[in-house]
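Researcher: Let's do a round of design. I'm pasting the structure tokens now; please hold your answer until I've finished.
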């Protein structure tokens, strides 16, 4: 009888363990990022890593063409490239390390990623740590590019409406719209 009880308990423990693993697997799938969020974060990882290494050509290749045009117009007008996405022009501050926070897709082809940055400030000869910023990435020309950086804000501070109004036509709608329509047809709507 004792042996039968022990076998029964062992069987129940195994079933309970399997149920817990299945629940963890379901939870993992629910927490999984969309492909666009994953690709946008991978692009931003490359962008920020190149910023840390001072690979300015690499940074520029991962910057949205409209942002580069804005920076060029700013330089022509003011003689300076002072812009959040022109780290090559900022000789006083240098990104040293960073870590990602939350990320979310706010529209087809538009992803926001919160980042916490450690920045060396040359004039103060000191570091600031975990400075919050939100990067806006757009799908363009088959991949993602960095469109803007909002310094000193958290993800919840940047609304989808403000991005829609502030950056019309920045995402390749030719790629984003068919994908959104396909998701609606398949019943998978964000």
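Researcher: That's everything. Go ahead.
Model: Designed sequence:
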């Amino acid at each position: 009888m004792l042996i039968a009880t022990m076998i029964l308990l062992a069987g129940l423990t195994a079933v309970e363990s399997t149920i817990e693993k299945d629940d963890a697997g379901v939870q993992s799938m629910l927490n999984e990022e969309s492909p666009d969020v994953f690709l946008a974060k991978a692009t931003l990882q490359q962008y920020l890593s190149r910023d840390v290494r001072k690979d300015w050509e690499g940074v520029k290749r991962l910057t949205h063409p409209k942002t580069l045009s804005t920076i060029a117009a700013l330089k022509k007008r003011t003689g300076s490239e002072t812009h959040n996405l022109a780290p090559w022009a900022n000789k006083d501050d240098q990104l040293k390390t960073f870590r990602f926070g939350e990320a979310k897709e706010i529209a087809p082809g538009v992803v926001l990623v919160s980042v916490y940055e450690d920045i060396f400030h040359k004039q103060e000869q000191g570091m600031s740590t975990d400075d919050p910023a939100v990067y806006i990435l757009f799908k363009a020309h088959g991949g993602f590019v960095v469109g803007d950086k909002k310094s000193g804000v958290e993800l919840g501070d940047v609304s989808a409406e403000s991005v829609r109004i502030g950056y019309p036509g920045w995402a390749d709608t030719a790629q984003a719209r068919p994908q959104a329509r396909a998701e609606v047809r398949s019943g998978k709507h964000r």
